[in-house]
Design goal:
- This protein has a 5-stranded mixed sheet, with helices on one face. It has a two-stranded antiparallel sheet with strand order 1-2.
- With 174 residues, the protein is of the alpha/beta class.
- Helices cover 40% and strands 21% of the residues.
- It contains 5 helices and 9 strands; from the N terminus they run H-E-E-E-H-E-H-E-H-E-E-E-E-H.
Length: 174
Amino acid sequence: FGLSKMRLTSILMTLLLVAAGAAAQQQLRIGNPAPEFTAQSLEGSVIDSKALEGKVIVMTFWSTRCAVCHSEIPKLNQLVERYRGKDVVFLALTMENNVRIEPYLKKNPFTFDIIPNSFGVLLKFADMDAGGRVNMGYPAHFLISRSGEIAHRTYGFDKASNLDAQIQRILASE
């Protein structure tokens, strides 16, 4: 009886360790509720994701040092124009601060609502491996449906036309 109790304890400990490792991993999937967040825009307004329910949210994680991001900005700005007056909100999140962003934006206008210092939001959206390391390529795009679910996610070069098609799909389906 003692051996089987020890064996049972060993099995339970192994299961607990596996469950803890799985819990440390994070990957948002299509259909999952989008993480809630509150952040301050470059202009000083507070962006509360909960208050944006009922709108389609286009989130782009980017950096001034990202060449792909730089090349995508004009295409992303066209999306803002295309959906002006519709229930679509465009947010550009960067871990960089105002001192770094403002000179960049003077030369490279980005018409999304810019959210600096957004490391905390990035942690909610980034994939995490079992060791807790962040795994997110730039630019990263997330579309959140009107009901607050992840509707689309993508990383990398030349995704603007696909984002446009996905926004149209979401608007048509809801």
